[in-house]
């Protein structure tokens, strides 16, 4: 769309396409060379199942079927399921049902929009194996339209083509490897000191002295404070009793964004010409983005002013990711605003929902909690404050996060728009088709995980250095060059938070908590509040 308006973009895009052909030829390379071609870090590659790196077998003759032959629910049935029976809240369940009924690959129509769902580990691997240099996730027209209207830049989530590639290559160098984010351990631990204080003050307000109501609210504030400490290099005060006004304004903008989620994200369904008749969704969408951008602008500008003052005083400028971006000017200031805005948006609910589920699962499985507590005690004792360097010695903590994300993948499905004609599962899929990669159903597939409904963090532990835990059925952060850029930040926040909570408290389910199921609201989140008891461990 935008590319065709700008001849420079068109030229560059062509060179990207030829780069991509090169990449296809490189697919038969051995693992690390292919990893390099994909832009995958060594740590990611280590997790990578061989299936993803295996060269395409030549010379096998198969009949290719067309999309017409692909099974799937009827258009009307699908519309009723989603719009009448509120299927958007049950996307994960519908994914499982459709997988059972139609098989590994099936098609659905949302009005005129065709979506091909891929619900099988090997086929998902095949799709990702065919990715080019700048994969496209979904149609981001509404995000791009807002940015054009306000003269704003796109960020990693909303950008495409060479704009995306340029920003991705800057950010990738800063935060993609565990060792890049290890330096933030101190900042995260400062936030964790406040989280623990907050747990103590909240439970003191309850009659039993141990219950914390609605832990997601607590983890939301922790995730926001933690990610902002890294992105903006500042503290926001989310875990204080009185939240500062500008932080509260941001939280309100974020809530508005999520409450209007259905009508905005899915309402590429609401065509532009209908906006004068149904103006509210677009208006709310713009108001919430205004709030989110305003917040980022305030914090980026604040840091910029501090850096300027330091330079004027002849002082050395030290800092994290934001400082690096502001000083090196590898991105324009508008691009920095857009990226920190989109990263904060992507980093708060994802992390906080996962922490809520992890705490809930620990509370429901006291034996597992005890095993993890033993590991933490053995490695750190009761008072050593963990850092990123300790995490490799805590395999059950890592397993806890992986297992939580397998059972409750915050993004139950992910998207790709095919950039070339493909044959997947014996079907011809033309270029430009919207694919849905069904991570929720592959996570529960018994072929991928034995006793798949069981909560077993130890299933992720390698028995020895040759043991390979094949996990392609569960890729909660996506895979390859368009995978989650914040993965290592999120992992650091979650590993340290869970270690410190388990080290300090015994966590149990409060009788006030009903059996909490998952619902989809854009992300997979708890359908009811989770109330937990935090009792001090006797050390
Ligand atoms: C539990 C926590 C998180 C989960 C499960 C998660 C998951 C994901 C997934 C599945 C994607 C799409 C990947 C793909 O299309 O292949 C994604 C993209 C993204 N995530 Fe995360 N995420 C988490 C936390 C974070 C954090 C903390 C940040 C920022 C600090 C972040 C920033 C982003 C961005 C900017 C993208 C778009 C990347 C691109 O298009 O290049 N995420 N995330």
Protein architecture, described:
InterPro entries: CYP11_CYP27_families, Cyt_P450, Cyt_P450_CS, Cyt_P450_E_grp-I, Cyt_P450_sf. Belongs to the cytochrome P450 family. Keywords: Heme, Iron, Membrane, Metal-binding, Monooxygenase, Oxidoreductase. By secondary structure, the chain is of the alpha+beta class. The chain has a domain at 63-143 and 412-475: Uridine Diphospho-n-acetylenolpyruvylglucosamine Reductase, domain 2, CATH 3.30.43. It contains 22 helices and 11 strands. A 4-stranded mixed sheet has the order 1-2-7-4. A 3-stranded antiparallel sheet has the order 3-11-8. A two-stranded antiparallel ribbon has the order 5-6. Strand 9 (518-521) and strand 10 form a beta hairpin. Helix 13 (215-231) runs antiparallel to helix 18 and helix 18 (333-364) packs across helix 20 (395-407). The longest helix is centred in the middle third of the chain and has 33 residues, at 280-312. The protein binds protoporphyrin IX containing FE. Protoporphyrin IX containing FE binds at residues 137, 156-157, 168, 227, 342-343, 346-347, 350-351, 354, 405, 410-411, 414, 476-479, 482-486, 489-490.
């Amino acid at each position: 769309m935008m590319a065709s308006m700008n001849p420079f973009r068109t030229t560059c895009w062509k060179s990207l396409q030829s780069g991509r052909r090169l990449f296809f030829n490189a697919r038969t390379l051995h693992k690390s060379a292919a990893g390099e071609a994909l832009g995958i870090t060594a740590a990611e590659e280590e997790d990578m199942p061989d299936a993803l790196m295996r060269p395409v077998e030549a010379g096998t003759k198969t009949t290719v079927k067309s999309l017409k032959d692909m099974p799937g629910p009827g258009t009307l049935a699908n519309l009723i399921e989603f719009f009448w029976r509120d299927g958007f809240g049950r996307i994960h369940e519908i994914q499982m049902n459709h997988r059972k009924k139609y098989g590994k690959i099936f098609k659905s129509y949302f009005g005129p929009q065709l979506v091909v769902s891929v619900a099988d580990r090997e086929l998902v691997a095949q799709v990702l194996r065919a990715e080019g240099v700048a994969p496209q996730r979904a149609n981001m027209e509404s995000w791009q339209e807002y940015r054009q209207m306000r003269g704003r830049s796109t960020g990693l989530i909303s950008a495409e083509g060479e704009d995306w590639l340029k920003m991705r290559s800057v950010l990738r160098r800063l935060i993609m490897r565990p060792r890049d984010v290890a330096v933030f351990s101190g900042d995260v631990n400062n936030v964790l000191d406040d989280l623990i204080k907050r747990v103590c003050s909240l439970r003191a307000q309850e009659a039993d002295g141990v219950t914390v109501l609605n832990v997601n609210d607590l983890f939301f504030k922790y995730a926001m404070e933690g990610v902002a400490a890294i992105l903006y290099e500042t503290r926001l005060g989310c875990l204080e009793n009185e939240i500062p006004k500008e932080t509260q304004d941001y939280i309100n903008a974020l809530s508005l964004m999520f409450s209007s989620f259905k009508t905005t994200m899915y309402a590429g369904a609401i065509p532009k010409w209908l906006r004068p008749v149904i103006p509210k969704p677009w208006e709310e969408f713009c108001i919430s983005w205004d709030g989110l951008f305003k917040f980022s602008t305030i914090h980026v500008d604040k840091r910029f002013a501090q850096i300027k003052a330091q330079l004027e005083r002849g002082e050395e400028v030290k800092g994290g990711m934001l400082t690096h971006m502001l000083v090196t000017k590898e991105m324009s200031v508008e691009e920095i605003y857009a990226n920190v805005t989109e990263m904060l948006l992507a980093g708060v609910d994802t992390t906080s929902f996962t922490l809520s589920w992890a705490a809930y699962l620990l509370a429901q499985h006291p034996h597992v909690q005890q095993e993890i507590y033993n590991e933490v005690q053995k490695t750190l004792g009761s008072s050593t404050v963990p850092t990123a360097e300790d995490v490799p010695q805590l395999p059950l903590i890592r397993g806890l996060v992986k297992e939580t994300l397998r059972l409750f993948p915050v993004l139950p499905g992910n998207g790709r728009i095919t950039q070339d004609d493909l044959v997947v599962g014996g079907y011809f899929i033309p270029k430009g088709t919207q694919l849905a990669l069904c991570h929720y159903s592959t996570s529960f597939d018994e072929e991928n995980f034995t006793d798949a409904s069981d909560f077993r963090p130890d299933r992720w532990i390698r028995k020895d250095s040759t043991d390979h835990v094949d996990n392609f059925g569960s890729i909660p952060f996506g895979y390859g060059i368009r995978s989650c850029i914040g993965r290592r930040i999120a992992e650091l926040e979650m590993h340290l938070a869970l270690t410190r909570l388990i080290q300090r408290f015994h966590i149990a389910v409060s009788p006030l908590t009903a059996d909490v199921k998952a619902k989809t609201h854009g992300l997979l989140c708890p359908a009811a509040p989770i109330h937990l008891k935090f009792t001090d461990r006797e050390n």
